[in-house]
Write a structure and sequence with these properties.
The structure is a single chain. By secondary structure, this protein is α/β, with parallel strands linked by helices. It contains 15 helices and 17 strands.
Length: about 400
């Protein structure tokens, strides 16, 4: 490590709140699927800012669109209309087939809005405020109080109790465990279509279909969290589209802005017409011209550059190469995932493997202590996959 990098890290440790155990590098710039630190070292990036930078780094058309918006106006207020928000909402509705959009600043805020919409929908039906929400064990929805309350990992919640009330937990892909939690107070069921932080667990088609039927029969709202698995990562614009199980409310963020902090929650017209009204919810920055210029351009580039087609071409190859790797080492127990959201499960902690990979110019991340997660930019090639496998294989051999 250079003295320059060491100095920056020491300054960060004095100034920034220590809520992350950061890797000991200082990143400076990116290009395509590569990142560079301040010493000029090049890294193949299979994290993409945790499933954010779908288009890769330094995409000229994306950059130019943001520069052009900066020269117009970055922010006004939601008390006025702005063209980028209107255009972004229209494009997002087209690809999601949802009816109403509310732009937020983050994924956690999108979850907060989704929970509020569900409770308001139930309140308008019976005037009561004791409604319950069912969430999944091992889920992750964010760090704010509402999102944390439906995050199915007690470790994240215990120091911050009490959470918001009337939350129950069931098991993903176990319909009976969900059904056992349902009663007349149940107003919503929330789940990630593919669990991310909880270990890369896709929901099954059978499970989602049964949940959808249950919600329809009892007028319960189905909330699907597509913050990490959405925006093309699974080979569909949103993972639920693979199964044809449409949610009543959906959350999205991460790759929605490809680096600009922006999220959204979307809903059907039924929910939109019977939930949040003026004064119920708001945001100062959400949906401002700059963020929405990013969203609009991202959606344009997804279509123009055939991003989802690339995912569907490269993802099976990534699965094949990961399966080969898993077959080579008995301490890798399985691979699971969808599209370019994959996980290798180890019988031991993976921190040493990730650190070794970083030393060798490959950026990886975990999903729990014993799973390496692969969420690269969606523009990666088969050659990039080969390079990643080569580095990871050498790290596994050396360890």
């Amino acid at each position: 490590m250079s003295e320059k990098m060491k100095s920056y890290i020491e300054e960060a440790e004095k100034a920034l709140l220590h809520t992350y155990n950061r890797y000991q590098i200082v990143l400076e710039k990116g290009d395509g699927v590569y990142l560079y630190d301040i010493d000029g070292k090049k890294y193949l990036d299979f994290v993409a800012g945790i499933a954010v930078f779908a288009l890769g780094y330094n995409n000229k058309e994306y950059n130019d669109a943001l520069k052009a918006q900066i020269d117009k106006v970055l922010h006004t207020s939601n008390y006025y209309y702005n063209v980028p928000a209107i255009e972004a909402a229209k494009k997002l509705k087209e690809v999601s087939k949802m009816d109403r959009v509310f732009f937020t600043n983050s994924g956690a805020e999108a979850v907060e809005g989704a929970l509020k919409a569900a409770r308001k929908y139930a309140f308008l039906k019976d005037g009561k405020t004791d409604h319950e929400i069912i969430a999944m064990n091992h889920s992750f929805h964010g760090r704010t109080f509402g999102a944390l309350s439906v995050t199915g990992n007690p470790h994240y919640r215990e120091a911050f109790e009490p959470m918001i009330g009337n939350i129950k937990f069931a098991d993903l892909n176990d319909f009976e465990s969900v059904l056992s939690q349902v009663n007349d107070k149940t107003c919503a069921i929330i789940l990630e279509t593919v669990q991310g932080e909880g270990g890369i667990y896709p929901a099954t088609e059978e499970f989602l279909t049964k949940i959808r039927k249950l919600c329809d029969e009892r007028d319960i709202l189905l909330i699907l969290d597509e913050i990490q698995c959405g925006m093309g990562r699974t080979g569909y614009m949103f993972a639920w589209q693979k199964y044809g199980v449409k949610p009543d409310i959906m959350t999205t963020a991460k790759a929605l802005g490809c680096g600009v902090p922006v999220g959204a929650f979307l809903m059907t017209e039924k929910v939109g017409a019977n939930s949040l009204v003026a004064g119920d919810h708001g945001t100062t920055y959400g949906g401002n011209p700059f963020a929405c210029a990013a969203v609009g351009k991202v959606l344009d580039l997804f279509k123009q550059d055939n991003i989802i087609e690339n995912v569907n071409e490269v993802a099976p190859y990534l699965e094949e190469r990961l399966d080969e790797l898993a077959g080579r080492y008995d301490f890798i127990t399985c691979r699971r995932g969808m599209g370019l959201m994959q996980g290798l499960v180890f019988d031991r902690p993976v921190a040493d493997v990730i650190n070794k990979a970083l030393e060798n110019g490959l950026i990886l991340i975990n999903a729990g202590p014993n799973i390496i997660r692969f969420v690269p930019p969606l523009v990666i090639t088969k050659e990039n996959v080969d390079d990643m496998i080569g580095i990871l294989d050498s790290c596994l051999r050396s360890l």
